[in-house]
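Example protein as discussed:

>
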Amino acid sequence: MKEERTTPLRRRMIEDMRIRGVGDTAQKSHIRAIKDFAAFLGRSPDTATPEDLRAYQLHMTDTGVTPSTVNVRIVALRVFFGMTCGREERKRHMWFRTEPRTLPVAFSVQEVSDILMAAPGPGLKYRAALSISSGAGLRAAEVCNPKIGDIVPEARLRHDDSVRMLTHVEQGKGATDRKVMLSPGLLELLRAWWRETRPEGWLFPGKPRINPSSARQRNRAVTSAKHMAGVRKPATLHTLRHSFATHRLEANTDVRVIQVLLGHAGLTTTARDTHVGTRTIRDTVSPCEMLAKLQDQTVKRSLE
């Protein structure tokens, strides 16, 4: 994370987060939140009083800040005051908001196919990138960061992972590595993209090419492809990941296997991401149906 043009207080917070192994994405999120708090306060954030914290939280409520954003900012404030300022008592004046539990949007298999076919060009870049999310269930950041060696393109046809049809996710969420499934069709598409432009380093380079492409570019591609395909559901790149999980569940894949493929620490998150596919719900036999059959058998026995 860039540290130039930073105040000593911000530099201290960044150093504290680095010491504790906080990831770059989380670091940037925390810094943005503290900047927002400082802008509201109108002075250095380390001078905030409990009354200032109360006023800021009331301000977020009055201005319609979503519960998820409120919670992200509260986490950042707790890190800032507890870790950088050494004022653990300030945490008593910060409250998390309860987020409404809604089911994530998921595309049908046909909708995923239509979106991938409508992925914007030129070339195969976006179709290949979106296919990784829908075909391997990667997170948005994971879709942007694969390296040439992770996917095993043309130059490494004999690589062991290629034989086993796996791809490597390096330092995913929680700074953990994992292997995910790689179908023959997806592998061939990725190889076709690699042959088209011969990227070096990053499989999907950004601008400049020494950097990976951004999640924002991917989300724009999803939005464009969705409109071109006539799909009206509200969705982002992450929706393809939800769809992957749902389709795996509908294909009778064990939920623990899906948990490993998605890189979840617990089954609760997996259950929410799969949102228990509609086909699975429809095909599940109701206890009422089972009771009705037993009752019919009882009536038949009594008549006999």
